Amino acid sequence: MEREEQLEVPYHALREALINALCHRHWERYNLTISLAIYDDRIEIASPGTFPPQITPENIKEPHESYPHNLKVAEALYRMTYLENWGSGAKRIMDACQAQGVESPTWSSDGGFVTITFMRPYFASDTTKIDKEDKKATKEDKYRSTTDQVPLNYRPSTAQVQEMILSMSDDYMAMNEIMSNMGFKHRTSFRKNYFLPALEDGAIEPMYPEQPNHPKQKYRLTELAKEWIKDNSDHSKE
Predict the structure, then answer these.
(1) Are 147 and 202 in contact (CB under 8 A)?
(2) Model-level pTM?
(3) Can you list the domains of the chain with their CATH numbers?
(4) Nearest CA among 175, 176, 151, 171 for reference residue 228
(5) Which of 7, 93, 104, 220 is most buried, with most CB under 10 Å away?
(6) Local structure of 6: helix, strand or coil
């Protein structure tokens, strides 16, 4: 018997993303290359070029026709069976992520590159496990240790946190839902300027506090944030 290794981000999703990068990159920009970057919290594959006029970061997740920038490359990959049905790459990527229970990626276009971003699910290797009491807190973990210290007369620490609080409902929301409500497309900027400050403020709380990077993680407003909304609503009526 052989042990089957499973990547934290599905192999088939990464493979499909790289194939798509080859098909759609702008080869005339010979001084630029496709890049694969691995960060602590995400994996990014960036390809020189732009989306076709018919495709956006939002509708790419919906059924659509294929518009390969490099038809010859796409045909070669199709004949070699690296490509399956044309125009179904995004769906296969999302299906692979769903089958493994990880978050679907996001697409963005900025600075002459099209980027697909996979968030890395939470994991801990056997060689790095230590007692929870001694584990250095991440920014998400800090929520649990600071919530009790937030004063009762809570005020958002920044205008961005205030904006995020006012955009959320009382129900649990995935990060993508919060971003959509606020009109954000780029996760990195949103996390840095809105999400993490709100978490450290004690304005939001996770559904799975013991697993910050749970694939089905969602967040809701804390009672302190709700009270702040109520107080401000009462003051506006005076």
Answers:
(1) yes
(2) 0.47
(3) 11-119 (3.30.565.60), 159-232 (1.10.10)
(4) 151
(5) 93
(6) coil
